[in-house]
Specification:
The protein is of the alpha+beta class. The protein has one domain: Spore Coat Polysaccharide Biosynthesis Protein SpsA, Chain A (Alpha-Beta Complex), CATH 3.90.550.40. Helix content is 30%, strand content 31%. It is built from seven helices and 16 strands. A seven-stranded mixed sheet has the order 2-1-3-11-5-14-10, with helices on both faces. Strands 4-15-16 form a three-stranded antiparallel sheet. A hairpin with a 4-residue loop joins strand 15 and strand 16.
């Protein structure tokens, strides 16, 4: 059986992450971890990814690794380069993990157990982000809000103008959404292949919001292309991550505290 036949066999057999013996290894999905970073990574990310890789060795899923350094305005280029490199490899899934994320050691196993090449080719973990909501001239401080990266599109006059955050997201279950970030998301190679056929190597290249004239973020642009190609997006909110913002870790527990303070 050649490499293409092995890949087709793996796709037809689904994406279960059940325990495998060495004889089963050719049928187990292969995962590559992709990380965009500014030249350094959080200890949370380094330690958790190392544990995740060690944990998956027992299943025969030996992750590859791709990384690109990028400043904020060039993140999309780095993500595009990682995808292009991934498509040159004999692998089934690309797991984007940002350089400031902490993930459970069994993240790969759990996301693979949910993923399916046709029904759930994209599965994200539960992540949280922060956004600046105000600034004080008096003490020269910024105020930030916390939000889950669980998003659905807001459509006006048949034009996607923005997205909104689902604050009351489904707890501890797999749910279909329209978009998330790229902080911790598992994506099957067929998603990238479909986009390449339609748009070339511009998976994360920012798109223009035509009504406003502004650019969408690189991750939002990716999920807009998914929407255009009718590629479903899911999230497993049982897979909970942390987001290191300079010693403040954005987690579901912090989100619950944040909501209670706002109530």
């Amino acid at each position: 059986m050649n490499r293409a036949e092995r890949r087709a066999s793996r796709r037809n057999s689904g994406s279960s992450a059940a325990s495998a013996t060495s004889a089963d290894v050719p049928d187990v999905p292969k995962v590559v971890i992709g990380t965009v970073h500014p030249g350094e990574v959080s200890m949370s990310m380094m330690a958790s990814v190392m544990r995740a890789k060690d944990h998956m060795l027992q299943y025969g899923i030996i992750p590859g690794f791709l990384e690109r350094r990028a400043r904020s305005q060039h993140v999309y280029k780095a993500r595009n380069e990682i995808v292009a490199g991934f498509l040159d490899m004999d692998a089934d899934y690309l797991l984007f993990v940002d350089a400031d994320m902490g993930i459970p050691k069994n993240t790969i196993e759990r996301l693979l157990a949910v993923a399916h090449v046709d029904d759930r080719p994209i599965v994200g973990a539960l992540c949280f982000a922060q956004r600046e909501v105000g600034f004080s001239d008096e003490d020269y401080s910024s105020r930030f809000d916390l939000m889950p990266t669980v998003q659905v599109w807001c459509v006006e006059d048949d034009e996607v103008t923005s997205f909104y955050i689902v604050e009351d997201y489904p707890r501890d279950e797999v749910c279909q959404i329209d978009a998330t970030g790229a902080a911790c998301v598992l994506i099957h190679r067929t998603v990238f292949e479909k986009m390449r056929a339609e748009h070339g190597d511009h998976w994360f290249t920012p798109l223009t919001n035509r009504p406003t004239g502004t650019l969408f973020g690189e991750d939002t642009s990716f999920f807009l292309r998914c929407r255009e190609l009718s590629i479903p997006v899911h999230m497993d909110t049982t897979v909970k991550t942390s987001h290191d913002k300079g010693g403040v870790f954005l987690t579901e527990q912090l989100w619950d505290m944040h909501k209670a303070l706002k109530a």
